[in-house]
Amino acid sequence: PAITVAQFQNHIRNRYYQTDKARGTPATFMWLMEEVGELATALHCDDKENLAEEFADVIAWLCTLANINDIDLAAAISKKYLDGDGPAGHK
Question: How far does CA 52 lie from the centroid of its chain?
Fold first, then answer.
C-alpha cells in the first residue's frame, strides 16, 4: 500500500525515535552515509530487489535524521519543490 512521506516519517519516529535521539545527529548521519554508499554500489548491479531495499534504507535513515532534528520532511519537500520552481538543476 502507498503511504505518504509524512506517514512514513511518523512510522519511523514511533518505532525508533528514542534510540535514534540517544545516538545523536553525527552518528545517525554516518549511518545515512553508509546506506548511501550501499545504494551507490547497488546502482552498479543488476539486482533490482537489492536496489529497491537500498533506496528504502536511505529514505528511512533520512527520516530518522529529520526526526531527531525536528524537521517535517513533507513540509520541507512541499515548500522547496511544490510551492515554487524547485532548485536550479531540477527544472
Answer: 13
> pLDDT tens-digit profile of 59-75?
999 999 999 999 999 99
Residue 80 has a pLDDT of 94
Contact 9, 65 (CB under 8 A): no
Q: Which residue has the cell 552498479?
A: 44
Largest CA distance in the chain: 39
DSSP 70: T
φ and ψ at residue 52, rounded to 5 degrees: -60, -40
Is 84 within 8 Å of 91 (Cβ atoms)? no
Give 41's contacts (C-beta < 8 A, 6+ positions apart). Answer: 54
